[in-house]
Amino acid sequence: MEIKVALAGQPNCGKSTIFNMISGIHQHIANYPGVTVDKKSGFFSVGDIDVEMIDLPGTYSFSSYSLEEKVAKEAIINENPDLILNIVDASNLKRNLYLTFQLLEIGVPVVIILNMCDVARRRGITIDSEKMSEILRCPVICASAAKNEGKAEILDIFKKTDEIKKNYEEFKINYDELEIYISEIEKAIKVNDELAISKRWLALKALEKDQTIVNLLKADNGNIDEIISAQRDKFHDTFDRDVESFLASFRYENADVIFHKCVNETRKGELTFTDKIDKFVLNRWLSFPILLAVIVIIYQSSIVFGYKLTNYTWPIFAAIKNFISDITPAADISQIPMITDMAMWLTNSTIALLNYLPIFFILFAMIAILEDVGYMPRMAFILDKVFRKFGLHGQSTLPLVLGGAFVGGCAVPGVMSTKGISDDRARMATILTVPLMNCLAKVPFYTLLLGAFFPKDMSIMLFYISTVTVLAALIIAKFLTSTVLKSRETAPFVMELPPYHMPTFKGVIIRSFERVWIYIKKVCTIVIAVAVILFALLQFPGLSTEKQEHYNQEETKALAKFDRAVKKSTYYDKVDTREEVAELLNLYDGYRAKKMGGSKDVDEKYQAKNPDMYKFLVPKADAEAKKINSALRKLSTDRNRILREQKNDKIESSLLGMAGRALEPISQFAGFDWKINVAFLSSFAARESAVATLGSIYESGKESGEAANADENLRPEERMAKNSGYTPLHAASIIIFMLLTPPCIATMIVVKMQTNSWVWMCFGMFFPFVLALIVSSIFFSISLAAGISGLAAMSWYYFILLAIVVVLWFIPEKRINWSGGIKGSKI
Amino acid sequence: MHLGLIESGNSCKIKALHAKDKLLQKLLDMGFVVGAQIEVIREAPLYDPLELRIHNYLVSLRKSEAELIEVEPWK
């Protein structure tokens, strides 16, 4: 037998822990088409019964105003469950019963699960569940998911589903004055016979003008709108009350009746644990230091500690990389097969992103803990006033911090954590500003530039870089919310501050895994697709025939040099053909790479693999082998130089290189040459590649011989300062561009996930790009004309942004999108 | 008088709601029904949202919204 169970409850009632307790971890997450709210399903068996359990989003009610409520309601209508499990927070019974009454009326048998009974007991609340069951005529189970209590009873209910359904009789509340209007509508509407939902409930919802239900009824009842309006008006005229407030009051009165009959509170009026903690956490003077401490802890444990962990995970990825490089076709001196090139490119792009997994895992775990503990809404409570001034919301705090409000964060979890923001306009503004924060991968880029051009003023520049992003984000958020996002709905800040709770280990782990898994899936699909496109853009049209000819000659020269050096060796017969030399060369490079990578028993492996050639790799006392070894070393250096030059040439003549050149006429105002443009374009795949691309471009071995060798010993930043011809002002302009530049692919994908719109994803890509180009052009051109230094220009930029923020702060807020009331009146 | 005028630590009783549509529905769902008792616990550190206790749970509300709730002191 199969049964379908829907899990409903108010937010913070512990629904997820109940879900995890009953279902284990057999679950999948389904996104409803068109919305970003998750619907989770779990599949498992109890005896011979197969259970599908649907976890609905937490809702306070079943009205039509919020996305979660709509999703929950539609799921109940469409999925047609056999049972509704209503999870109720036992320590907050009255408000939770408000939803219970709405669920009872749907027409599907309801089972009430009093969760967190242990917490309630601790707070001196005892609930007479038998009495409650008697009054509400439905099973009531005491449970505590955090302590694994109540599981057996719930599974028992599943076994009795048939019996429950057989004995079920529709639950009705007598709404006194409203009754005649309900029955009027009930009489007037026709519904599809297959619909298992109570007709009375539909009528009631219609009377509440619930848009989802009205639309559902419209299919069979053309004139439903008129009937509803007529009945609503009649009710309003007779009793001078709105249906909505009448129903809400009525349900609360009913909840009050249950509360007084079934609940015994022994410690009423005493300060709860939560009250005591809040005295500190929300204290006017202590709240900010505590908030700062929490942020520092998150930052330290996830970004700093997580980054250290990547030292341990990196060898795994390096091994995968080595494995792929082993199975792809080997290079023939300076000719690398395209398939090998592409495989390595894809591997590098993917592992560059997967490398952050430890950071993400810790970050997601920290978020889950903060959510469970109940600190998240308090964070919003503390900072709401600041953010509201700029069109954001108190709940924007965490996303911005995770994105890297200080230097070093990641926009992916930042954007993902915007999910809970109830205010749609602020949520969109947050999603679009989080990628402006300084992510971890931008740090090496800044260090490179600061090291090269601002060695003396590094600390002040770092201070500017790390704080100016927040200023820019506030200004941009204000701009977006008063322009493109203007018509978006805002939501009132009516937010529950739930009691503090100990998070459960299992719940935290499950949720972090879930979110990491989503990330992995995205990385492995879309990111790879984009990497392929970028590869093609960097590969084609490829080198011209003359250039190719030039490199072929270089190769022949290098080979001839090697041949001369080893001709007199006794081992000459081992290395006298091109194939043998190629094999030896690949062996040598592979050996060195693995040796440097620190893998174990490299020597044994290479000795076993090719004992003949191994002696050239590690010649020991053999003088003849030493001769070959030193020639081989030179050949390897030559080969790498040719490969590097070839690659640079290829980038220069590639489509992306052309795009970089095509952008030069515009980007020159910002002081960028085509190399910087290419670096920025390629950094789109993953931020890290900006440094890599710049690095490889400036590695140019233009000088030959001694000079090149001296260059090899320079650190990248020194090489860049020496070879690029840039001034600190150029560097400052590049930094400003990077501060505003578009997010990486992984971020764009989560932006697509969170906004559920390709349009917003593209906007999130092009808006910062254009803005960054304009801002850095103005910055560079004016500073150049005024003849000020890079540091001075940066200081000007910083203080101008600061001034704008201060001005915006004092601009009075516009009224929100509701009106009326008794503002300022003294009644 | 309205809820925004109640000082921290004091209680009041809802007389009427002057909000509309979405805000009204949200307030009703959170238990702001006529006759309900509200205790103003504290202001946020920056003086805006308020922390309230209603039906024995904690909720925060911006002052601009609190002004739409008509109350009378709780005796």
- Using the alpha-carbon principal axes, give the shape of chain A: elongated
The helix fraction of chain A, in percent, is 55-70%
Strand order of the largest sheet of chain B: 4-3-2-1-5
Instruction: Give the overall average pLDDT of chain B.
Output: 91
Explain briefly what this protein structure is.
Chain A is α/β, with parallel strands linked by helices and 827 residues long. Helix content of chain A is 64%, strand content 6%. Chain A is elongated, with a radius of gyration of 33 Å.
Mind explaining what this structure looks like?
The complex is a heterodimer of chains A (827) and B (75). Mean pLDDT of chain A is 82; it is low at 700-711. In chain A, 64% of the residues lie in helices and 6% in strands. In chain A, a hairpin with a 2-residue loop joins strand 3 (38-46) and strand 4. Chain A contains 37 helices and ten strands. The longest helix of chain A has 41 residues, at 287-327. Chain A has 827 residues and is an alpha/beta fold. In chain A, strands 2-3-4-1-5-6-8 form a seven-stranded mixed β-sheet, with helices on both faces. A two-stranded antiparallel sheet of chain A has the order 7-9. With 75 residues, chain B is α+β, with helices and mostly antiparallel strands. Helix content of chain B is 17%, strand content 39%. Chain B has two helices and five strands; from the N terminus they run E-H-E-E-E-H-E. Chain B has helices at 21-29, 63-66, and strands spanning 11-17, 37-43, 50-54, 57-61, 69-73. Chain B has a five-stranded antiparallel β-sheet. Chain B is globular. The two termini of chain B are 15 Å apart. The chains are: A alpha/beta (827), B alpha+beta (75). The interface between A and B is large, with 52 and 44 residues. Strand 10 (495-496) of chain A pairs antiparallel with strand 4 of chain B.
